[in-house]
Amino acid sequence: MKFGGTSVADGERISHVCNLIDKYLKQDNKVVVVVSALAGVTDELLRASNLAGKGEKEFIKKFVDELKQRHLNTCKKAVKEETVRRAVEETIKDTLLELENVLVGVAYLRELTPRIKDYILSFGERLSTPIVWGALKSMGVKTQWFTGKDAGIVTDSNFGSARPLMETTSHQVKSRLQKLLDEDVTPIVTGFIAADQNGVITTLGRGGSDCTASILGVALDVDEIWIWTDVDGIMTTDPKIEAKARVIPQISYAEAMEMAYFGAKMMHPGAIEIVMEKGIPIRVKNTFNPENPGTLITKEQKVESRSIVKAISLIRKAALITVEGAGMFGVPGVAAKIFSILGEKNINILMISQSSSEANISFVVPRDMLEDALNALEVKILGGNIAREIKAEDDICVIALVGAGMVGTPGVAARVFGAVGKEKINVRMIAQGSSELNISFVVKESDGEKAVKVLHKEFGLEK
Ligand code: ASP
Ligand code: MG
Hints:
Number of helices: 15
Oligomer: single chain
Helix content: 40-55%
Radius of gyration: 24 Å
Distance between the termini: 28 Å
Bound molecules: aspartic acid, magnesium ion
Shape: globular
Number of strands: 17
Strand content: 15-25%
């Protein structure tokens, strides 16, 4: 069971989460718990690391003090047993002393490498996990807490989004945690953080606690992985856009990954990838509504007869770039050049399409990357006479439809574009992955919500 930041945001919520864990333990389950940082803490650490990297020192004391207050308060509310509480308080204080020293060090050196950043980001989970441990222990549950590193998770040294080395990891995790489980001890592990082969702390990327749950699940060959969050499961669309959105009871790994890539921030796509081979089911559940069965993510693509399309997402704050020029016709390597230029600048491309006339290539990038992208392309593409013109539009959004039912079903695209056409919504660009699991297209930002609503209705996704 992995509990996200909002599920452990404060003392009351942690007590609630521990009651849940206890309930499932009493029903004769064995549980391994994975804990995220308290809501918002990772973002704060990121900001602090950037400030320190610029040489700022003045903010550090206050920053660390505030973190201390927040964690000590949370601990006070969640950990009932006094001796246990004292132990947790000591851990919090020691950990924060370490953080303060690190930030001061970085500020003097004015150097923030990805490796140091991972080290700083690791503090969120190192502070939250002992509190959950203390709360559960106070309830009389036999438990022990670990950092991801101590639990045996080993990754490559790709700081910022490290990948697990599953052979070693499985071996180590089994030898460290299985025995405890056999003795009815509930292990609690920090999400998000691990260590490379040299023992240096790494992180699994933002939202990476999901991956920790998957890694431990695969290593221990569990029956199910439960991702506890603050909504009832994966929804047909954002309920803030369409009030009739509903929870999807079952979805395949492939569909869930497609959705995760398109911004349905429900699960880390890497977490799904890790379990794919073993086929362990993942369940997304709501801490605030635990009776709801949530969404089950499994290997099989069950095609619900009522829906060819299972979910529709809207990706806001996107920008469209089009590179044009007859010089691109039949010249190999143009696309490669464009994308390697963007790759060098670390610009993430959300969507690509090229017309078969080859006279233009269009692609979508996050809006806040647009300027960087244009700067890089203008110098190297226009300057290099590869293309004649580069156009940009910054008021667009992407709509993505996902569903295994689209595979091999003719007429889906016709329905999609027929429905939006009837509303006089102009489609600027279209792409379909050859997996046929998704169709995505670009419209004006101001048409985005309307398009989602129209399609949600067209494919019968309402409650
Ligand atoms: N605390 C980390 C983050 O906010 C990991 C996680 O919550 O999954 O990215
Ligand atoms: Mg989080």
